[in-house]
Specification:
The structure is a homodimer.
Chain A lengths: L2 H19 L4 H17 L1 H17 L4 H7 L3 H16 L7 E6 L5 E8 L2 E6 L4 H12 L3 E5 L5 H16 L8 E3 L6 H6 L8 E5 L2 H10 L12 E5 L5 H13 L8 E7 H17 L3 E4 L1 H6 L4 E2 L2 H4 L7 E7 L2 H11 L4 E5 L3 H10 L4 E4 L18 E3 L7 E3 L5 E8 L6
Parallel strand pairs in A: 3-4, 3-6, 4-5, 7-8, 7-12, 8-11, 9-10, 9-11, 12-13
Antiparallel strand pairs in A: 1-2, 2-16, 14-15
Helix pairs in contact in A: 2-5, 2-7, 3-7, 5-6, 10-11
């Protein structure tokens, strides 16, 4: 069978399962999530043994160290997966919630309720925990899922999904509600994005390369996630007691994540005072600084920032720095170079803060705190399937509700038009 | 200049205007809408004269009669455009509305507010009234718009947008908030759908061919609209006093629109009684009937329905008819062939109605009334930019809110992570 047809068959089975999922109860879903948690804990030795084969193969291929780290499972990580399943079970059910109703002059009763998408396609990279997270969130939102993880983790993902399916079906969830795409061929990603009418939405989770590939080829609607060129602007009215720790930690606490700061903008009136202080702190913490001309006049220890730097998500201990003439210049720079993810202003000037929040075009705009808070758990959503950097459907951290759509239910008695 | 670069320049100007639009007040927007209405009324002779050139050119090209009708303007139609502008001015401003807020344990105050998309690209066909509608809705929702109408209406659309821009700028709206793409080259549609970072969303309004072309090539997020293969299922517990007028009017009142019924499903237990009655009414109203085998046993006057018929949006006085064995069979047929637009059940059985509404996968699911009500005005939204047949962002009739996205505004004082 052709790869494309094989995938379409899998999606068709998921679609049939999705029709059944539209009718499952909250109790069934929660029981399935708890059974899945029990199963991965009970069978952790088996999971770890299979995972070791993936890790061995990756090492033999000379895979980078941080990728190996993401791939590797141990009892603590399996415990954390099980904990995630428990947490998802404890969340309120997003399905069936009525968010709008009206009775029209002609007597029609119109209600709008949250319903599942149907089949959610998730395309991700090496981390096996994404498999468990994605299944948990899709099942809790009554969706079927079609999962395509990175080829490095294929054995681990296969054993995980087998265990999850067995546990879920024991509580009445249809078998094909969880479909794992075991095709390592990269063309499978493209084929999956084009399964119109079978897959309802595609969520790519990974680097810019994966996202671009999906967006370029998809005919199924896509929710783009993840890339973050995040800015912090230190205004002339900034309190340095806030500006220094916020900017420092926004860079160093976890430089590999999408909500870390990549560019620091500083108002010219305070640059001579602020820049040497932050430069010293950053360098002490092994951050490489790349400044524009004005920054380098004050801090000659900085490397030269090029045009390319302003648009780069380093995901590393590197920071670009620029001195700006005004709040307006800061906003213009951000709107030119950001990825509409998260940007912040540090200021005690309420008007400046308000203008910044109004005019900066991003999913989350912060005042006097760090872009690092753009995260489903930090926002109190209790779960996160990703951070949307597009404006359709969901923007910013996506919780369970982002995995639902709505439906109008209209009742009449003989009205015609 | 290359067509692609020319388009990108237009979009860049629109994007700059969108930054300014993010700060305009409700009063400015409403004043602009009223000024636009005044202007098109005051200059209707000019508009009609230019429109006559488009109509003449279309006639010379041998354009179909119904297309000519859609293209032609007269004082009544211009009056109706002005009325649409007034109505949009009277609607509540969707921007700035706060729909979620929370204070987190660490003191972060998180608010979610409605904001404009930025630049909305609208690709449509011959009807010049879409130009005015689209401008009205985009301005009211603080978006800039990039409009690409059908080539048949190019002179009319050009004069209309010139007049609208002049009126809007007189009230402080930035000039480039309304950008009309005067390139008739069909490749302009493809180029426009690929202006990532310049255009925030693309809404195609038109036939299946246009929509497919946009979906196939777009890298900008798309809201699909319009195609409707709508079903009415007459259950065994149907009241014929409702079933007969609802199904008749759903087919004949305006067969060309997307919410008209295309397929009638009838439960086998009542088929021998119901089908002859509805067949007679339909034939009296010049509807061509195409039935499956069981329908044709009861009503031999029907033509033979083929597999293709079940998936066809006739947009004409043609109806496909099928006898089904059960409610479940009706639901399965609908989920296989519908375009997730609108479907209805006629029944006095509450359980059957509930099951149908739960399991049919469509934007609007009706009980005892007609699919023809899927319409922004009928739902009380006061305006409509189209009917979404996808599940992302908006589903069903899209009012002003569908032209907005949201933004998280987060305030702290020195919190780090």
């Amino acid at each position: 069978m052709l790869m494309k047809d094989f995938l379409a068959n899998q999606a068709r089975e998921a679609k049939d399962a999705a029709r059944i999922m539209a009718g499952v109860t909250t109790e069934m879903k929660n029981a399935a999530l708890m059974a899945m948690a029990d199963a991965i804990l009970a069978r952790q030795d088996e999971i770890i043994a299979v995972n070791a084969e993936d890790v061995k193969a990756a090492l033999e291929k000379g895979t980078r160290k941080n990728m190996i780290d993401r791939l590797t499972l141990n009892p603590a990580r399996i415990e954390s997966m099980a904990e995630g399943l428990h947490q998802t079970a404890a969340l309120p059910d997003p399905i069936g919630h009525e968010d709008f109703h009206v009775t029209r002059p002609n007597g029609l009763k119109i209600r709008r309720v949250r319903v599942p998408f149907g089949v959610v396609g998730i395309i991700y990279e090496a981390r096996p925990n994404v498999t468990v997270d994605a299944v948990a969130l899709c099942i809790k939102s009554s969706n079927a899922c079609l999962l395509r993880g990175g080829s490095e983790a294929i054995r681990t993902n296969k054993v995980l999904t087998d265990i999850l399916i067995e546990a879920a079906t024991s509580k009445g969830i249809p078998e094909h509600a969880i479909e794992f795409v075991a095709i390592t061929d990269r063309d499978a990603v493209v084929a999956m994005c084009r399964l119109r009418k079978l897959v309802d939405v595609i969520i790519p989770r990974g680097g810019a390369g994966l996202i671009t590939r999906v967006v370029e080829h998809a005919t199924v609607p896509v929710i783009e996630t993840g890339t973050g060129v995040c800015h912090i602007y230190v205004d002339k009215a900034a309190n340095f007691d806030i500006a220094l720790p916020v900017t420092l930690t926004a860079k160093i606490s976890r430089p590999s994540v999408c909500n870390a700061m990549e560019t620091l903008l500083v108002h010219k009136d305070i640059a001579a005072d602020f820049l040497p202080k932050i430069s010293k702190l950053m360098i002490e913490n092994k951050v490489e600084l790349r400044g524009d001309e004005l920054s380098r006049k004050i801090c000659p220890e900085m490397e030269i920032a090029t045009e390319e730097d302003w648009a780069t998500e380093y995901s590393d201990l590197i920071l670009s720095v620029k001195v700006v003439n005004s709040l307006e210049d800061a906003i213009a720079h951000i709107n030119k170079y950001n990825t509409e993810h998260s940007d912040a202003i540090i200021t005690d000037d309420k008007d400046a803060a308000e203008k910044f929040q109004k005019l900066v075009d991003a999913a989350a705009v912060y005042v006097n705190t760090s872009t690092r808070f753009t995260d489903g758990f930090e926002f109190g959503f209790g779960a996160e399937i990703g951070i949307s950097t597009q404006k359709l459907h969901a923007r910013g951290p996506m919780g369970l509700e982002a995995l639902t759509t709505m439906k109008y239910l209209v009742e009449g008695y003989g009205q015609t038009r």
